[in-house]
Structure formats: C-alpha cells, structure tokens
Amino acid sequence: MTDLSHLARPGAEIAVRVTPKASRDAVTLVDGAIRVQVTTVPEDGKANAAVVKLLARALGIAKSRLTLVRGATARDKLFRIED
Predict the structure, then answer these.
(1) Of the four listed, 1, 50, 60, 76, which is most buried by Cβ atoms within 10 Å?
(2) pLDDT tens for residues 24-42?
(3) Helix (H) / strand (E) containing 46
(4) pTM of structure
C-alpha cells in the first residue's frame, strides 16, 4: 500500500478516484492522483466505508478524522482531514 502520510495535515482536502468491485484492496498514487480500489460492492455506503478505512490506513490517521465532502455516490470523491 502506498504511504500517504505526507498528505495528513489538518484541513487538507484529498481527491480520490474509487474503483469498486476490484480484485483487491489497494491505494495507489498514479501521476499525482490517488486511486483507491476496494473489493466491496457500491451499495448502502459499504464501498465508501471501505474507502475511508483504506485511505485512513494509508494516511496514518484515524478513520474518524476523514470526512467525505463530495461524491458520496460518484467514483470521484473529496475527503477532508479534520483536526
């Protein structure tokens, strides 16, 4: 998994591209863009919860510090790191 701890600043906004129903869970950095692949299906917020879990682990922060700002039902999401 890619180490994104250098991005973990309070108030920072992180844009990610999500691929649900992937073959494996992964967080990668491709050409400066963060891509998150989850094996979970996108229903009832299950994929969003899996994305938060993986992204928090890659950033080295608690899941409760990540807030979904935009893109609850889209593949492109924007997260904010809270204090």
Answers:
(1) 50
(2) 999 999 998 999 999 999 9
(3) helix 46-59
(4) 0.92
